[in-house]
Specification:
2 domains, about 250 residues, Rossmann fold, four-stranded parallel beta sheet, alpha/beta
């Protein structure tokens, strides 16, 4: 008689913030993920500022006898945290754990759909699309790969019917949100909307909001949008398959 294989535990790894809105949004997203997949155990760990820490979550799972874990970075691009911080934490995990690091969430057509959802929730109508310029406002990074990804998302999103789409960054890179807003005005877009390409509120999203002062519409952060939860689960499924194959499941 064959036992049904146990699904790997999904550990969502968030950056953490002193701003309490950050952790609250992360937990809200994780609750949505759990509601979509009640058969998957989902835990949350933070790299900094909030508890539980990633290390604490992994040590607790190992103490329970858990063997297989998918560690999923709650990040939109493969920048420093995905390439350095998180792998370093995972290397220090208890040796009994078999851990596979999932890919970051972006880019994904589902995330673009979530951006549009937030814009419409903020007051835009689908009929406004062709006359509206959009600022795709990211937190920013010193990593060229991450910056290139944001620029490519903006180029591809433009082809879905917007007047124009421009990338902007709250830190590390240029242009800033306010500069992109002015550029879209100069291009002649009837409306300008700012779409924060960030997952949770905090210091840099607040800077994006300030930069959107001259825009007509400011969307909310992606947060617990259903599309984000679906991307998260897709990354989990892609990462868990090799783990299951390794144990003959």
């Amino acid at each position: 008689m064959h036992r049904k294989p146990v699904r790997p535990v999904l550990v969502v790894i968030a950056h953490g913030s002193r701003d309490p809105r950050h952790a609250a949004t992360v937990h809200s997203l994780v609750r949505r993920v759990r509601s979509l997949r009640p058969d998957v155990r989902v835990e949350t760990g933070f790299l900094d500022f909030n508890i539980p820490s990633v290390q604490g979550v992994l040590e607790s799972l190992a103490a329970e006898g858990v063997r297989d874990v998918v560690a999923l970075p709650l990040l939109l691009t493969r920048a420093f945290h995905a390439k350095a911080d998180i792998p370093a934490v995972l290397r220090d995990a208890p040796s009994r754990l078999r851990i596979r690091q999932a890919e970051v969430l972006g880019p994904s057509p589902l995330l673009t759909a979530a951006l549009e959802r937030r814009l419409y929730e903020a007051g835009l109508a689908p009929a406004d699309k062709s006359s509206t310029g959009v600022v795709l406002a990211s937190a920013g990074s010193t990593d060229p790969e991450a910056i290139a990804v944001i620029a490519e998302i903006a180029r591809e999103w433009r082809h879905t019917g917007w007047c124009a789409v421009r990338p902007a960054f709250a830190s590390a890179s240029l242009p800033r949100t306010e500069d992109a807003v002015r550029e879209l005005r100069a291009l002649g877009c009837a409306k300008v909307a700012v779409a924060p390409y960030v997952l949770a509120p905090g210091f840099l999203p607040d800077r994006i909001a300030r930069g959107a002062a001259e825009a007509d519409v400011l969307a909310d952060v992606l947060g617990p949008a259903p599309e984000v939860a679906r991307v998260l689960l897709a990354r989990y499924e892609a990462a868990r398959t090799p783990l299951l194959a390794a144990v003959g499941a």
